[in-house]
Specification:
Helices cover about 70% and strands about 0% of the residues. It is built from 7 helices and no strands. It is found in: Cell membrane.
Amino acid sequence: MRTARVPHAVAKGHRAARTASGQWAAWAFLAPIVIYLAVFYAYPLYRNIELSLRNYTVRSFVQGDAPFTGFANYAKILGDPAFGPALWHTAVFTVVSLVFQFVIGLALAVFFAKNFRLSATLRALFLVPWLLPLIVSASTWSWMLNSDSGVVNAALRGLGIGPVNWLTSPD
C-alpha cells in the first residue's frame, strides 16, 4: 500500500509576497532592455516621424525653426512623377536580391554539408569575412593603446598626464 503525501500548504500571504518579489525581479531584468529599446529605437522613430512632418531647409535646420507642414511632404512625394518608378525599382531590386541571396545561400549550405577533400579548408575560408572585422578592430585598439606610440597616450601627454601601460599586466 502506498502512502499519499499531502502537499505543504502555503499561506496565502506568503505566496503573494513571493509573487510580488518575483514581479520586481522580472521588471528589474527587463528594465535595461526596455531602456535600450526606448533610447535607440523608439526615440529615433519618433524623431524621424516628427522631422518628416516639418519643412526643413538648410537655414531652418541650423536655426531649428522649421515650420510644421503636416502631411504636405508626403503628399508632395506621392504626387511626384518620379515616385512610382523609384518605388517599383526599389521593390524589384529587393525581391531579386532576396531571391539570389536565398538561392546562393541554400546552394552553399548544401555544398558545405557534404564531406570532400577540401571541405574543411573551404569552410574555414568561408568564415574569414566574419573574422576580418574583429581582427581589424583588435589591431586598431592595440595601436591606439600602445604605451609608446598610441594615440590615447599621446592625448594624455598633451593633457599633462603620464602614459599608461594599457595592454600590460600589473604583475
